[in-house]
Amino acid sequence: ETTYHTLEEGMVEYCTTETPVTVTAEAPVEMLAAQAECSAKPQELKSRIALNSAKLLQEHRVTNLHVREIAQHLENQNDLLQMIRRSQEAQACAQERQAQALEGTQAALLALIQMFRPALKDLRKFLQNANSANAAAAAETGEGVENVPPQTEDAQ
Questions:
Q1: How far is CA 115 from the centre of its chain?
Q2: pTM: predicted TM-score of the whole model, two decimal places
Q3: Which residues does the annotated region (Disordered) include (predicted)?
């Protein structure tokens, strides 16, 4: 007789086969009972072993599924970390180019200041001379000397 067992709905099935006990006319009833007990115990052990094996097999399948899910998750994490690393590298390159551009701008501004410094000095002298000439002409004529503020080197 073959008995089919199912651990969970739709999961793992296993079967046990029981050997039939044949009864003969010479065997006493006690022998038949003892034989049934002895054959029941090995059969019970076989059933337990089959059940345990089926449970272990199912747990193994579930564990493998979990391991695959974890591996997939780790691969996704690794891909994400690679993208973050590439992004940080791109940001570092952009910051380096920006720093170089700022250094270039600073150097250009310093060069312009150096170029304009003599021209500004000449312009200042010209304005002071023109202001002095206007003040002298106004003093001679007596017109509005009070309204013209004196130019100094600091006023720019």
A1: 51
A2: 0.44
A3: 134-156
